């Protein structure tokens, strides 16, 4: 007599699908998109419906990119302790199912952005997905420049949110609201802040997980020798660059002086952590940079929003 097969646990399947999207990373990415949307000059009344739709669209597009990343890298993920239990890497989910999930979520997310906001923001989101999944992902095993390439799709959510609100993309276009003209530079300033922030953030992660990454053949630190003084110096340089960029929102009339003071203090705090890494050259210091960066970005974005210059 044959024993009947055990029915699949639907709750576990849903958890696997959620894991494909890398939810913790995804939420941080989409958070920057929503804040950028709210910082745009023509968003005066906060509509929870539109915020939720933007969050959903962004989450699905970013989740699609992360699902493609996990499906393409299933063999290397299986080699690393921190990623071996991912759905496709562990064999709980087939590569075909991973691709199907990525296609459905990607198309749905782009459609939400296009239908409820504008097709320009949907196009930027689709371009970001392409860069991350098909350019950055395969490049990680070839050269450390992959981190530079990956910083573009990592910062594009700011422009997705800004473009969703304004319908404009290029920095020197003028946005007209109630007869008043505003600069469209704000979205690009936010883009540059998030672009620069990614270098100390990601290199700290790569420092902490260097053994795992090396085992899988990833080249993610700026020095081929691994965690070196050169790598630590690079984190200092990029965190320092955040200082002048961080005050631009004040000069373009996007945020007030109080917000800029908070942003500057947050930038100085990150610089101090990077200097500590350069001095100590250990995993504990790299971990402090990593966790400091997790705090830094939300603080900066929320400070700018809290002191937004109202029209």
Question: Could you please describe the fold and organization of this structure?
Answer:
The protein is mostly helical and 311 residues long. Helices cover 72% and strands 3% of the residues. The protein has 13 helices and two strands. It has helices spanning 10-20, 23-39, 48-72, 74-79, 95-116, 119-139, 146-166, 185-208, 210-216, 229-246, 248-251, 257-280, 283-306; strands spanning 174-177, 180-183. The chain has a two-stranded antiparallel ribbon. A hairpin with a 2-residue loop joins strand 1 (174-177) and strand 2. Helix 5 runs antiparallel to helix 6 (119-139). The protein is globular. 44% of the residues are buried. The model is unreliable at 1-7 (pLDDT under 50).
Gyration radius, rounded: 20 Å
How many angstroms does the end-to-end distance come to?
76 Å
Shape label: globular
How large is the share of residues in beta strands? under 5%
Helix/strand-derived category reads mainly alpha
What series of H and E elements makes up the topology? HHHHHHHEEHHHHHH
Q: Trace the largest sheet across and list its strands.
A: 1-2
Largest sheet: 2 strands, antiparallel
> What level of helicity do the residues show?
over 70%
Number of helices: 13
Q: Using DSSP, what is the number of strands? A: 2
Mean pLDDT: 90
Q: Low-confidence spans: pLDDT under 50, at least 5 residues?
A: 1-7
